[in-house]
Amino acid sequence: EIVLTQSPATLSLSPGESVTLSCRASQSVISYLAWYQHKPGQAPRLLVYDAFNRATGIPARFSGSGSGTDFTLTISSLEPEDFAVYYCQQRRSWPITFGQGTRLEIK
Amino acid sequence: EVQLLESGGNLVQPGGSLRLSCAASGFTFSSYAMSWVRQAPGKGLEWVSTIVSGGTTYFAASVEGRFTISRDNSKNTLYLQMNSLRAEDTAEYYCARSAVAAAGTGPFDYWGQGTLVTISS
Predict the structure, then answer these.
(1) Range A13-16 contact pairs with CB under 8 angstroms and sequence separation of 24 or more
(2) Which of A22, A86, B69, B105 has the fewest CB atoms within 10 Å, counting from its CB?
(3) How many Cβ atoms are within 10 Å of A39's Cβ, its own excluded?
(4) Measured between CA atoms, how close is A18 to chain B, in angstroms?
């Protein structure tokens, strides 16, 4: 099983700031890495797939990078609606696995 | 517009059974892999099971042998039959569609709102 480790667990930032979230895989997932945003009471939302491709309708302030075992999600100039939990997920091999999540909080 | 609507969540005693349904609309259901993903209270997302368009199924180790995933393409509906339920199966269960991908099953591009399963005596 491929283990995904996200860091940090929690971040406290203010609107307008930029942030980079990290996801490290226990073995190479090539580029089969996606990022999701999840808010309480809502369905998770796909942000980025295959490491750097923005999903349909996702603002340009969200960008993904990385390959192999190290990946990042950068959000430039945080908007109030960006405060949520972010998960990475690999589809390189079964079982599909998610990271434990990074909670982005308003300072 | 793609829509996924889960139903069937309930309070069940340990050892009991439950069947979840996910009604899909707005796309050609039979062409897509479909999955169940759950979130236990206070925890992160956990993949549970996937059924690809051809019918092959995959399960997380934690549910293998207890859960069955199936689909009825004539009804555009995905199912999750859950047997021998345990307290640790308590979670919000989401239905999710996998995007078409050149290799393997794609990322989860559409999700339902979830249905709550509670296992307790």
Answers:
(1) A13/A78, A13/A104, A13/A105, A13/A106, A13/A107, A14/A78, A14/A106, A14/A107, A15/A78, A15/A79, A15/A80, A15/A106, A16/A77, A16/A78
(2) A22
(3) 13
(4) 24
pLDDT at B86: 98
pLDDT-derived band at B82 (thresholds 50, 70, 90) equals very high
User: Please, are residues B39 and B83 in contact by the beta-carbon 8 Å criterion?
Assistant: no
Q: Which residues of B touch A50 (CB under 8 A)?
A: 107
Structure tokens at B117: 């399963």
Verify whether the Cβ–Cβ distance A36 to B45 is below 8 Å: yes
Q: Give yes or no for residue B8 having a pLDDT over 70.
A: yes
CA distance B88 to A54: 34
| B109–A55 CB contact, under 8 Å | yes
Residue A79 has pLDDT above 70, yes or no: yes
Handedness of CA A75, A94, B66, B97 (dihedral sign): positive
The shortest CB-CB distance from A95 to any of B60, B103, B104 is to B60
Q: Where does residue B24 rank: exposed (0-12), middle (13-18), buried (19+ CB within 10 A)?
A: buried
Contact: A95, B47; criterion CB under 8 Å: yes
Cβ contact, residue pair B107, A34, below 8 Å: yes
